[in-house]
Specification:
The complex is a heterodimer of chains A (115) and B (109).
Chain A (H helix, E strand, L loop, with lengths): L3 E4 L2 E4 L4 E8 L5 E7 L6 E7 L2 E5 L6 E7 L2 E7 L7 E8 L10 E2 L3 E5 L1
Parallel strand pairs in A: 2-11
Antiparallel strand pairs in A: 1-3, 3-8, 4-5, 4-9, 5-6, 7-8, 9-10, 9-11
Chain B lengths: L2 E3 L3 E5 L4 E8 L6 E6 L6 E6 L3 E5 L2 E6 L4 E6 L8 E8 L5 E3 L3 E6 L1
Parallel strand pairs in B: 2-11
Antiparallel strand pairs in B: 1-3, 3-8, 4-5, 4-9, 6-7, 7-8, 9-10, 9-11
Classes of the chains: A mainly beta (115), B mainly beta (109).
């Protein structure tokens, strides 16, 4: 148990569907992250929130829309996805962003399949 | 560009020792992390090195040479539960994590 919970664990959706991924952290951290993990590729940072404000958006297509209503919750809203978006989506949190030894704690991820 | 290299897959025998290497070229360096990820589970923190040398933590040790842009993770007395992917990540000058693609370690009896 890492203190970061993601739901759902698995999601299958068509290209015209709209769905949302949820992440909740119980660690009292100030920073939260969304990553995409594809087979045999490095983790791709998608979005970063610090104190509920977005501080990073690494050229992610607009069909991915993040939302951070408070410091404990993070959502990733999905719409009109493409088959190449199929991947494991990981959420992480850390105490803050200004520290080099900034250990990130991960959730188990949502395995997304786009048909 | 920034780059982290680690072997894609390694195989080792239960009870043996294995060394997983990681080389990096990044814009600045503020430390290096190793994470373990079992299939279908969350990556979990193993170690952080910012100074040259070896840091030991039970069966796992991590080594760093900043001048060579090189790190390794050493696993001793391998157990079947050590079968997992091992991720290397470097903190660059902007305090961003640059990740390697991970090394899948297979332990055989």
């Amino acid at each position: 148990e890492t203190g970061v919970t993601q739901t759902p664990r698995h999601l299958v959706m068509g290209m015209t569907n709209k769905k949302s991924l949820k992440c909740e952290q119980h660690l009292g951290h100030n920073a939260m992250y969304w990553y995409k993990q594809s087979a045999k590729k490095p983790l791709e940072l998608m979005f970063v929130y610090s104190l509920e404000e977005r501080v990073e958006n690494n050229s992610v297509p607009s069909r991915f829309s993040p939302e951070c209503p408070n410091s404990s919750h993070l959502f990733l809203h999905l719409h009109t996805l493409q088959p190449e978006d199929s991947a494991l989506y990981l959420c992480a949190s850390s105490q803050d962003m200004e520290n080099a030894k900034n250990i990130q704690y991960f959730g188990a991820g949502t395995r997304l399949s786009v048909l | 560009g920034q780059n982290i290299d680690q072997p894609t897959e390694m195989t080792a025998t239960e009870g043996a020792i294995v060394q997983i290497n990681c080389t990096y070229q990044t814009s600045g360096f503020n430390g290096l992390f190793w994470y373990q990820q079992h299939a279908g589970e969350a990556p979990t923190f193993l170690s952080y090195n910012v100074l040259d040398g070896l840091e030991e933590k039970g069966r796992f040790s991590s080594f760093l040479s900043r001048s060579k842009g090189y790190s390794y993770l050493l696993l001793k007395e391998l157990q079947m539960k050590d079968s997992a992917s091992y991720l290397c990540a470097v903190v660059d000058s902007n305090y961003q994590l640059i990740w390697g693609a991970g090394t899948k370690l297979i332990i055989k009896p």
